[in-house]
Amino acid sequence: MKRLILAIGCWLCVASTMATNRLTLSTAEGSPRDTVTLTATLAATDAVVAAEVVIPLGDNISYEAGSAILASARSNGHVLSASQVGTELRVYIYSVALQPLRGESGELFTCRLILGDKPLTQALVPQVVLSDASGNAIGREITNGELTILAPEMTIQTPVIDYGHIPIRSTYTQALRITNSGNMPLTVSEILFTDSEYSCDDLPVIIPAGATQPLSIRYAPTMYGAVSSKLTVITNAVNGMYNAVRDVTLKADPFSVNELHVGNASGIADDTVSVPLTMNNMEAIPAGQVQFVLPKALHVVDGAFRLSSRATDHQAMLQQRGDTLTLYFFSPTNTPLTGEDGELGTLRLRLDGTSGTYYLHPLNTVLANVAAVNMVSAVSNGYVTIRSPRLHAASSVQMGQVAVVDTLLAALTLTNNGNAPLVVERVMFLAEGYRCVTPLPLTIEQGRSAMLSIQYTPRADGAFGTTMQLYTNDPDRRMYSVALTGKAYEPNNLMLSGQRAGKNYVLTVGLNNYSQVSALQFELAGLPEAGVQLATISRLAQHSAMLVPMGGGTYRVVVYSFANAAISGNSGAVLTITFPTTNPMHINATVSNVVISSMLGQNVASGDAPTWQDELCEHTVTVLTDNNAAGKAEIHDAE
Fold first, then answer.
1. Given this structure, which CATH class describes domain 18-149?
2. What is the number of other CB atoms lying within 10 angstroms of the CB of residue 588?
């Protein structure tokens, strides 16, 4: 017996330990604004006298007042009280007589819930307290419920669509992005526009739950001016009751396209080019104006602004103040230009600058319609490209020396470092006696060089010089100055010749003189130290001559006149020097310190260096002299 009682006690203990009390909420679903029933069941192994169930409902679910009903099979004289406090449903079940609920499992109570307007799937997580007859809390377990509102929901991702500043007479497309935030397919059935220039051809469209669909909203403006309108989206969102209609703002600033474009031109410096002005216009344009700040390299010419054939009853005007050029055109009868695209006119400009690109930026542009409203929508720049030559040459030329009876030629190298042909148009000299021999005009291609030949004919001896002026098409060197210098002299020189005379050799000294000469002197070295004799010829009839030994085979020859008489004649022999020879013979005779004196006592020796050959005596006599009239005579006697 004791064993049986003990066994029963142990079983009760295990049963008490394994006892479960579980409250379970049901699931329910429906459409927005539907009313659904929520059921609570209780499986209890303990004597439950009272129960408190608090269910958070949220903002989209509400309790239908008075709909909570206690299951009669579980009631044991119990009372049920239910109400919504805030967003919570609070259900109380209790027995005044402290009697436990009947049965161990089954439905405890039901209530009706009103679904809201937004789709959702929400877990119902109750807070549950179970009590026994002593008011003590009884252990419990909970199984949550779930409530689903089935509906599509429209969310507009682009509440404002702005097409911006756009030309009229074209079609533009922007995307209206719609997201289905619900849990059922969303059908966009229609889009209504307050402006007939908008349209959408993508309808109807079905957007799956959770997806985003772009719809193309086309805009084809025909009138200019900022506008604001709207579109209305018609959908099946939430059974057509909530969110079914949604407005979207449409903005645009369409404008009439009336554009002035400045074209481009290219030419060589000093050329005249025509810069085209074109206009494409949607409005009827009878008048307009445009200004330019002209680069210094560009200059207008007479009749510079000319209208095209689009002008039928129009006048063109041009006004320049300083470097600001203003072009006007207008119709006295307010007649619009013909056509909607093409050349408006041309601006003729002279190119007076060096190589480069010179921009024409239109300023204060007006394209007026017949109501005198400026309709210009855009302008564009143009430019003029100038190609020009660039002269490179020496700034001075040393022409050298020339006898007053001769003509001197010199050359100046001209190089064109530019990118257009260089033209030397004329050459001028600031003194007489000079001449450009090269035919003019002289054209030198870019990257090439040419020689300019200069001739000078002296009129008197002495240093000469002048400035040569080159007139070219180089914009930076319209006139280029070159200094010319040189020296002219009167030709006065000694001439030597010789021949064998028996056992002697006779060296004849001749004088070619342009000037009147009254005396002369020179030194002759390399002769024998004895037997050298001097004799004068008739040209020295009024003069005396001396041969002065200086030692070592060097002699000084002096010719003079106490009366300062001029040596007669201008050419021919003046004296002879005779000296004995041997056979074979080789004599190096050096002439130096030559002085040919004018009537004023000036040395007018020019220092010419003649060369001659004495074939009869088979002697070669050469005199080499420098500009100081010093020289060397070599006498060779052949076998």
1. mainly beta
2. 13
pTM: 0.61
User: Which residue spans within 258-342 are E strands per DSSP?
Assistant: 258-262, 265-268, 272-281, 287-293, 298-307, 315-321, 324-330
Rounded distance, CA 424 to CA 472, Å? 4
pLDDT number for residue 498: 83
Query: What pLDDT sits at residue 483?
Result: 97
Contact (Cβ atoms closer than 8 angstroms) between residue 132 and residue 12: no
Cα–Cα dist 46/141, whole Å: 13
> In what helix (H) or strand (E) does residue 24 lie, and over which residues does it extend?
strand 21-25
The total of other beta-carbon atoms located within 10 Å of residue 111's CB is 22
Do 519 and 546 touch, CB atoms closer than 8 A?
Answer: no
What pLDDT does 285 receive? 97
Q: Which of 630, 510, 525, 624 is nearest to 575 (CA)?
A: 510
- Cα gap 436→77, rounded to integer Å: 143
Measured in residues, the chain has a length of: 639
Bond preceding residue 100 cis, omega within 30 of 0? no
Extract the tokens encoding 83: 């109400």
Q: How far is CA 120 from CA 24, 28, 183, 402, in A?
A: 21, 12, 7, 117
Token pair 């040569």: residue: 468
Q: Is 609 helix (H, G, I), strand (E, B) or coil?
A: coil
User: What CATH number matches the domain at 154-255, 3.30.420.40, 1.25.40.10, 3.90.226.10, 2.60.40.10?
Assistant: 2.60.40.10
Q: Which residues of the chain have a pLDDT value below 70?
A: 1-19, 239-244, 583-587, 607-639
Helix (H, G, I), strand (E, B) or coil at 142: strand
Say how many Å lie between the first and final Cα of the chain, rounded. Answer: 183
258-387: CATH topology is Immunoglobulin-like (2.60.40)
pLDDT tens-digit readout, 429-461: 999 999 999 999 999 999 999 999 999 999 888
What is the C-alpha separation between 556 and 476, in angstroms, rounded? Answer: 61
Fold: same for 18-149 and 391-489: yes
- Topology adopted by domain 492-637: Immunoglobulin-like (2.60.40)
Q: Where are the domains of the chain?
A: 18-149, 154-255, 258-387, 391-489, 492-637
What pLDDT was estimated at residue 632?
40
The tokens of 113 are what? 């819930």
Q: Which residues contact 105 (CB under 8 A, 6 or more apart)?
A: 41, 42, 43, 44
Amino acid identity, position 497 = S
Local structure of residue 511 (DSSP, 8 states): E
Do residues 124 and 147 make contact, with C-beta atoms less than 8 angstroms apart? yes
Amino acid sitting at position 118: K
**Closest-CA residue to 231 (of 213, 218, 220):** 218
pLDDT of residue 311: 96
The Cβ-side half-sphere exposure at 35, using a 13 Å CA radius, reads 7
Three-state SS at 540: helix
List the CATH code of the domain at 391-489.
Answer: 2.60.40.10
CB count in 10 Å sphere of residue 402: 21
Residue 350 buriedness (CB in 10 A; 0-12 / 13-18 / 19+): middle
Token code pair at residue 181: 């935030």
Q: Which helix (H) or strand (E) covers residue 14, if one does?
A: helix 2-18
Q: Is 20 helix (H, G, I), strand (E, B) or coil?
A: coil
Q: What pLDDT does residue 155 have?
A: 92
Which pLDDT value is given to residue 239?
54
CA nearest to 451, candidates 408, 409, 414? 414
Backbone angles phi and psi of 7, in degrees to 5: -65, -45
